Amino acid sequence: MDKLQPYLTKAQDLYKKFYEKRGKKGLVQAAALGLGLLFLQYQVRKYNGWLKKKSVANQHIFITGGASGIGRNMAKRFARLGAKISIVDVNTTALQEVVDAINKELGNKTAFGVYCDVSDPQSVKNAISESITFHNRSIDILINNAGVVSGRQLLQNSEAGITKTININTTAHHWTVREVLANMMENNHGHIVTIASIAGLVGVRGLVDYCASKFGAVGFDESLRFELRAKKSKVRTTCICPYFINTGMFDGAKSRFPLLFPILSEEYASQRIVNAILQNETVVIMPVILNFAIMIKACFPTCVYDNMMELFGVSESMDHFKGRAQSK
Ligand SMILES: NC(=O)c1ccc[n+]([C@@H]2O[C@H](COP(=O)([O-])OP(=O)(O)OC[C@H]3O[C@@H](n4cnc5c(N)ncnc54)[C@H](O)[C@@H]3O)[C@@H](O)[C@H]2O)c1
């Protein structure tokens, strides 16, 4: 305490001098600036992945739709961090290629892959049970990543198309999470990750079924988080809401102001999501500028928000959509 005394006296003197010169208003301004800077440095550290990260070594990470795109990319990144990976997908050829690539790079039993249609509860049950048997470990991190997009306006879409989107992008989350949650809660350990979309927070024409499904996924994550909070559970949740990513899924979709709203690269998006999981972040909107769209929606009348969305070209971004099937 004696050692600290000179510093405390100096701080008191500085405070007095500052108060005499600037008064109460100056103090409030300085406090606001300090808090702002503190918040800013925290955000910078968070977005660059410089916060404290948890270890995933030997943890069992189960990724749906991991045969391509960001699911495949995340699987490789987590495997390199020492995790045991289970990948499920309906595309068994691509799935096997990812599993083989990981096992070739990191050793034979690092990755396990099995067919699973996430919209079918029995298929989910089987895949989870087989992956637990393979790795001899219950699931530590579940990443609900599998997704589809039709890119059709409401009246051009079919009943089957709409049902498929909702079943895979939203309902499936119930099947996978119900399989692992009880065990996670019992162990007071685990992490449920929802790969939603900015389309789960903002409506876009041409994406009625997709937005409905992703708004559902966002609601699923948020409600689950509150259920876990009420039980003081240490099971974590993370909801990811990205803008377009160049995986091929949204080929043809356009950003009117690419400098402001850039189409994200698969590499960047996957690294950011992995960091968010390791840093136990709850909600990630990327790129960060899209937080302003949410703020405008929350704070201004709907007509202001609608006009902003049109001005920034958000509502027309799907007009030239081709999607993966029609792309190379
Ligand atoms: N690409 C983007 O612009 C973008 C933007 C925001 C959110 N997302 C979301 O990110 C996630 C991954 O997208 P991506 O860009 O990597 O797409 P992707 O098409 O490369 O990957 C999706 C994977 O899900 C698999 N899949 C489809 N139906 C399935 C089913 N019934 N059961 C199991 N697997 C199934 C596909 O075979 C594919 O391997 C999706 O949920 C998507 O909605 C993508």
UniProtKB/TrEMBL annotation:
Its main location: membrane. It is found in: Membrane. Keywords: Lipid metabolism, Membrane, NADP, Oxidoreductase, Transmembrane, Transmembrane helix. Pfam families: adh_short (PF00106). It is a multi-pass membrane protein. GO terms for cellular component: membrane. Catalyzes the reduction of all-trans-retinal to all-trans-retinol in the presence of NADPH. Belongs to the short-chain dehydrogenases/reductases (SDR) family. The keyword Transmembrane helix applies. This is Short-chain dehydrogenase/reductase 3. InterPro entries: NAD(P)-bd_dom_sf, SDR_fam. GO terms for molecular function: all-trans-retinol dehydrogenase (NADP+) activity; oxidoreductase activity, acting on the CH-OH group of donors, NAD or NADP as acceptor. CDD domains: 17beta-HSDXI-like_SDR_c. The keyword Mitochondrion does not apply.
